[in-house]
Amino acid sequence: MILLGLGADALEPWLMLQVFAGANRDAASRLVAALTKGVEKVMSTMGIHELRGYGRVFAAIGLKSDLETRLGVKSFLASERAGYGIPELEKTMQDRRHQWTLGAAALARDARFNTRVYKHAQAVASGEITAPDYTGRVRALELEFPVAARNLLEVKGLDGPATEDEMRLAEEIDISAGKHRLPFVISAMSFGSQGETAFRAYPEAAKRLDMVSMNGEGGEIADMIGKYTRWRGQQVASGRFGVSSEMLNAAGFIEIKIGQGAKPGEGGHLPGSKVTVKVANARHATPGVDLISPSNNHDLYSIEDLAQLIEELKTINPYAKVCVKVPVCRTSAPSPSVSPRRARMSSSIMSRRNRWRSRRPMPFVHWEPGPSMSNSFGFGGHNGTLVISPA
Fold first, then answer.
1. Which of 82, 184, 266, 341 is the most exposed place for a label (fewest CB within 10 A)?
2. Looking at per-residue confidence, does 107 or 8 come out higher?
3. Do residues 222 and 281 lie in contact, with contact meaning Cβ atoms separated by under 8 Å?
C-alpha cells in the first residue's frame, strides 16, 4: 500500500508469489485473494472504489528534503541535521545486508505494549500484584516502549513542600470550561461496546466532578435518561441506533459523527453475541442480531446536508450544544471544520489517535502550539465563537 500510495500503477510481489507457488496448488491463488482483499480494505478507508483513484494520500515524519523530494511526499518535524535522508537509508540497507550475510538477520522487535499492559491488569485484578505495583510496571513499559510523547515526559515536582501562597494561588486558578468546573471530556463509547458497570460509572463520575461525559452511538439505558442532562452528551452517527427525541432532550450536548467505527473507514460493528436484551432495548434493535453502522454517514454529503441535520437537532433540543466530530488528517484540521461551522454548529471535535482517552477541551486554540491552525479557523469565519476539543 505504501508503493501504491506513492503513485505506483501496478505491483508484482514476485518473490512472495514464487514462495507460495511452490507450496501447493491453492496457496498462490489464496495469496492473491488475500492481498486483493487487503488492498480493497485499505482503499475503503479513503472512500476510494478504484485503484486508479488511490493517489498520494499520506505524509511522512522526519524525512530530510532529499528523500522527501524523491518520494514526492510532504514531511514534517525533520531537519537536515536530525532527519532521515538518502545517506541514512543507504546505511540502513548496508547494515541489513551485513546482518544477512552473517546469518543474524531478524525481524524488528515487536513492543506488544497493549498485550503486556493487559497481562499486568489481569494480575492486579486477580490479586497477584497490588495497584502501586501495577502503576510501576506500566510506567516501566512506557519507558521501555514509548508509544506517545507523554511516555517520555514527567511532571516536574516541587523542590520542597508548597508554601501557603502557592497553595492559595493553586486554589484561585480557574480551570473551568464553559459552565463546568473541570475542562475534561470523557470521550464517547457506546453501551454494548462496553459493559453496563463502566457505562453507568462514566456519567456519574462526570456529575460528581462537574465535567462532561459523552455517550457513543448506542442509545441510553432507560433509567439514565434525564438523570445527567447537564453533564451528558449524546451521539448521532450513521446507524442512528438508540436515537430518540426523549434521549436528545435529556442531553446538554449532541455530537454528530461523520465517520463511524473504531477503525476509520471500516464502520461500526457490534456482534450479535453482545446484543443482549438490555443492549437491544437501548439501541431499539433485536437481541442477538449483528448491528452495523456504515463507515460514512450517508446523510451528509454537503454543507447543506449538515446544516439541515443541525437545524433538526436544534429544533428537537434548542438548548443543547451541537458538536461535529471531524477526523484530523495531517495538517488539514481547519479545512473540514470550517464547513460545519457555517452550518451553525457549536463546537468541533478533533479526532486523532488515542481517542479513547479523556482529553482536555481547547477553548483558546491560539494559546496552543498551533497558531497557523488558529488563524485558519479565523479565516474560515469562526471569529473566536467556536470551541475546539480534541477527542
1. 82
2. 8
3. yes
